[in-house]
Amino acid sequence: FTHQAYKIMRRWYWASVFRERYAGSVESTIYRDYQDFLRAAKDPAFEPEAIADARINIAENKAYSLRSVSRVNSVYRGVMCLVALRGAKDFQSDDSIEFHTLEDHHIFPKAYLSRLKDQGQSTASTDMNCVLNRTLISAQTNRRISRSSPSEYIAKLIPKERLGEIMHSHFIDILALDAMSADNFEDFMYAREIEVLSEIAHQITG
Questions:
Q1: Which residue among 53, 87, 136, 196 is the one 20 to 30 A from 172 at the CA level?
Q2: How far is it, in rounded angstroms, from Cα 172 to Cα 163?
Q3: How many CB atoms lie within 10 A of CB 21?
Q4: Cβ(20)–Cβ(75) below 8 Å
Q5: Are 40 and 47 in contact (CB under 8 A)?
Q6: Taking residues 151-176, what's their average pLDDT?
Q7: What is the CA radius of gyration of the chain?
Protein backbone atom coordinates (compact mmCIF):
# COMPACT_ATOMS: atom_id res chain seq x y z
CA PHE A 1 0.00 0.00 0.00
CA THR A 2 1.06 3.59 -0.64
CA HIS A 3 0.88 6.42 1.89
CA GLN A 4 -2.58 7.24 0.49
CA ALA A 5 -3.87 3.92 1.80
CA TYR A 6 -2.77 4.85 5.32
CA LYS A 7 -4.53 8.19 4.96
CA ILE A 8 -7.73 6.35 4.00
CA MET A 9 -7.30 4.10 7.02
CA ARG A 10 -6.96 7.08 9.37
CA ARG A 11 -10.06 8.71 7.91
CA TRP A 12 -11.98 5.43 8.20
CA TYR A 13 -10.89 5.06 11.83
CA TRP A 14 -12.14 8.48 12.94
CA ALA A 15 -15.30 8.15 10.87
CA SER A 16 -16.03 4.83 12.61
CA VAL A 17 -15.29 6.26 16.06
CA PHE A 18 -17.52 9.32 15.77
CA ARG A 19 -20.37 7.50 14.04
CA GLU A 20 -20.17 4.64 16.59
CA ARG A 21 -19.97 2.33 13.61
CA TYR A 22 -18.85 -0.67 15.64
CA ALA A 23 -21.21 -0.25 18.58
CA GLY A 24 -23.43 -3.10 17.42
CA SER A 25 -23.04 -6.20 15.24
CA VAL A 26 -19.61 -6.03 13.61
CA GLU A 27 -19.11 -9.03 11.31
CA SER A 28 -20.90 -7.68 8.24
CA THR A 29 -19.58 -4.16 8.90
CA ILE A 30 -15.98 -5.39 9.07
CA TYR A 31 -16.35 -7.28 5.80
CA ARG A 32 -17.95 -4.31 4.02
CA ASP A 33 -15.33 -1.88 5.32
CA TYR A 34 -12.52 -4.23 4.31
CA GLN A 35 -13.84 -4.46 0.75
CA ASP A 36 -14.31 -0.68 0.63
CA PHE A 37 -10.75 -0.13 1.86
CA LEU A 38 -9.26 -2.38 -0.83
CA ARG A 39 -11.24 -0.60 -3.51
CA ALA A 40 -10.37 2.89 -2.21
CA ALA A 41 -6.66 1.97 -2.04
CA LYS A 42 -6.77 1.23 -5.78
CA ASP A 43 -9.25 3.91 -6.86
CA PRO A 44 -8.70 7.41 -5.37
CA ALA A 45 -12.11 8.51 -6.68
CA PHE A 46 -13.95 5.93 -4.58
CA GLU A 47 -15.23 7.02 -1.16
CA PRO A 48 -15.80 4.22 1.38
CA GLU A 49 -19.25 4.01 2.90
CA ALA A 50 -17.97 4.69 6.43
CA ILE A 51 -16.21 7.90 5.39
CA ALA A 52 -19.13 9.10 3.24
CA ASP A 53 -21.54 8.50 6.12
CA ALA A 54 -19.39 10.50 8.55
CA ARG A 55 -18.75 13.27 6.03
CA ILE A 56 -22.49 13.75 5.42
CA ASN A 57 -23.69 13.31 9.00
CA ILE A 58 -20.85 15.06 10.84
CA ALA A 59 -18.50 17.19 8.72
CA GLU A 60 -21.24 18.65 6.50
CA ASN A 61 -24.05 18.53 9.04
CA LYS A 62 -24.48 21.89 10.78
CA ALA A 63 -26.91 20.28 13.25
CA TYR A 64 -24.35 17.75 14.52
CA SER A 65 -23.50 18.43 18.15
CA LEU A 66 -21.52 16.93 21.01
CA ARG A 67 -23.71 18.54 23.67
CA SER A 68 -25.53 15.27 24.40
CA VAL A 69 -22.33 13.20 24.76
CA SER A 70 -21.88 12.69 28.49
CA ARG A 71 -21.61 8.91 28.83
CA VAL A 72 -18.40 7.06 28.06
CA ASN A 73 -18.83 5.71 24.53
CA SER A 74 -16.69 5.74 21.38
CA VAL A 75 -17.47 9.42 20.70
CA TYR A 76 -16.45 10.42 24.23
CA ARG A 77 -13.27 8.36 24.03
CA GLY A 78 -12.58 9.74 20.56
CA VAL A 79 -12.58 13.32 21.83
CA MET A 80 -10.23 12.34 24.68
CA CYS A 81 -7.91 10.67 22.14
CA LEU A 82 -7.85 13.85 20.05
CA VAL A 83 -6.90 15.82 23.16
CA ALA A 84 -4.02 13.41 23.80
CA LEU A 85 -2.91 13.42 20.15
CA ARG A 86 -2.87 17.21 20.13
CA GLY A 87 -0.14 17.04 22.77
CA ALA A 88 -2.24 18.36 25.65
CA LYS A 89 -0.21 19.97 28.42
CA ASP A 90 -1.01 19.71 32.10
CA PHE A 91 -2.57 22.94 33.40
CA GLN A 92 -0.25 23.34 36.37
CA SER A 93 3.09 21.78 35.44
CA ASP A 94 3.04 22.85 31.77
CA ASP A 95 4.44 19.58 30.46
CA SER A 96 2.91 16.76 28.48
CA ILE A 97 0.07 14.84 30.11
CA GLU A 98 1.87 11.60 29.18
CA PHE A 99 4.22 12.11 32.14
CA HIS A 100 1.41 12.02 34.71
CA THR A 101 -1.25 9.84 36.24
CA LEU A 102 -4.22 11.27 34.37
CA GLU A 103 -7.74 12.10 35.41
CA ASP A 104 -10.72 13.06 33.29
CA HIS A 105 -11.23 16.62 34.51
CA HIS A 106 -14.35 18.80 34.48
CA ILE A 107 -13.06 22.10 33.04
CA PHE A 108 -15.89 23.88 34.84
CA PRO A 109 -15.71 21.76 38.02
CA LYS A 110 -18.81 19.76 38.82
CA ALA A 111 -18.86 21.03 42.42
CA TYR A 112 -18.63 24.62 41.18
CA LEU A 113 -21.52 24.18 38.74
CA SER A 114 -23.57 22.44 41.43
CA ARG A 115 -22.99 25.45 43.68
CA LEU A 116 -24.30 27.74 40.93
CA LYS A 117 -27.32 25.50 40.54
CA ASP A 118 -28.00 25.77 44.28
CA GLN A 119 -27.89 29.55 43.84
CA GLY A 120 -30.61 29.37 41.21
CA GLN A 121 -28.48 29.41 38.06
CA SER A 122 -29.64 26.68 35.70
CA THR A 123 -27.05 24.17 34.45
CA ALA A 124 -28.31 20.91 32.97
CA SER A 125 -26.58 17.84 34.40
CA THR A 126 -25.96 16.57 30.86
CA ASP A 127 -24.08 19.77 30.07
CA MET A 128 -22.17 19.53 33.33
CA ASN A 129 -20.85 16.08 32.41
CA CYS A 130 -20.69 16.70 28.66
CA VAL A 131 -17.47 15.74 26.88
CA LEU A 132 -17.07 19.41 25.93
CA ASN A 133 -16.57 20.15 29.63
CA ARG A 134 -13.94 17.42 30.01
CA THR A 135 -10.23 17.11 29.32
CA LEU A 136 -7.15 15.23 30.55
CA ILE A 137 -4.89 16.66 33.25
CA SER A 138 -2.78 15.22 36.05
CA ALA A 139 -4.43 13.83 39.16
CA GLN A 140 -2.45 16.28 41.29
CA THR A 141 -3.66 19.30 39.29
CA ASN A 142 -7.22 18.02 39.38
CA ARG A 143 -7.08 17.81 43.18
CA ARG A 144 -5.72 21.36 43.43
CA ILE A 145 -8.51 22.70 41.23
CA SER A 146 -11.15 20.95 43.33
CA ARG A 147 -14.24 23.22 43.60
CA SER A 148 -12.58 26.37 42.20
CA SER A 149 -14.18 28.39 39.44
CA PRO A 150 -12.25 28.48 36.14
CA SER A 151 -11.30 32.12 36.68
CA GLU A 152 -9.83 31.24 40.09
CA TYR A 153 -7.73 28.28 39.01
CA ILE A 154 -6.53 29.99 35.82
CA ALA A 155 -5.11 32.80 37.96
CA LYS A 156 -3.78 30.45 40.64
CA LEU A 157 -2.37 27.48 38.73
CA ILE A 158 -1.67 28.09 35.05
CA PRO A 159 1.60 29.84 34.09
CA LYS A 160 0.46 33.19 32.70
CA GLU A 161 3.16 33.37 30.02
CA ARG A 162 2.09 29.98 28.62
CA LEU A 163 -1.65 30.26 29.21
CA GLY A 164 -2.72 30.53 25.55
CA GLU A 165 -0.46 27.69 24.42
CA ILE A 166 -1.52 25.36 27.22
CA MET A 167 -5.23 25.93 26.68
CA HIS A 168 -4.89 25.65 22.91
CA SER A 169 -3.54 22.13 23.46
CA HIS A 170 -6.93 21.25 24.99
CA PHE A 171 -8.99 22.73 22.10
CA ILE A 172 -9.67 25.85 24.17
CA ASP A 173 -9.28 28.90 21.92
CA ILE A 174 -9.26 32.57 22.89
CA LEU A 175 -13.07 32.79 22.95
CA ALA A 176 -13.39 29.72 25.18
CA LEU A 177 -10.59 31.03 27.40
CA ASP A 178 -12.31 34.41 27.72
CA ALA A 179 -15.49 32.57 28.75
CA MET A 180 -13.54 30.63 31.39
CA SER A 181 -12.01 33.84 32.73
CA ALA A 182 -15.53 35.26 33.04
CA ASP A 183 -16.90 31.98 34.48
CA ASN A 184 -19.39 31.90 31.61
CA PHE A 185 -20.22 28.24 31.16
CA GLU A 186 -22.59 28.54 28.20
CA ASP A 187 -20.22 30.69 26.12
CA PHE A 188 -17.40 28.28 26.93
CA MET A 189 -19.38 25.26 25.75
CA TYR A 190 -20.32 27.03 22.52
CA ALA A 191 -16.74 28.08 21.73
CA ARG A 192 -15.13 24.76 22.62
CA GLU A 193 -17.61 22.77 20.56
CA ILE A 194 -16.63 24.76 17.47
CA GLU A 195 -12.96 23.89 18.05
CA VAL A 196 -13.53 20.19 18.70
CA LEU A 197 -15.96 19.76 15.80
CA SER A 198 -13.48 21.45 13.47
CA GLU A 199 -10.83 18.89 14.42
CA ILE A 200 -13.25 15.97 14.02
CA ALA A 201 -14.25 17.20 10.55
CA HIS A 202 -10.57 17.56 9.64
CA GLN A 203 -9.82 13.98 10.67
CA ILE A 204 -12.78 12.64 8.70
CA THR A 205 -12.24 14.62 5.51
CA GLY A 206 -8.46 14.36 5.56
A1: 53
A2: 10
A3: 20
A4: yes
A5: yes
A6: 95
A7: 19
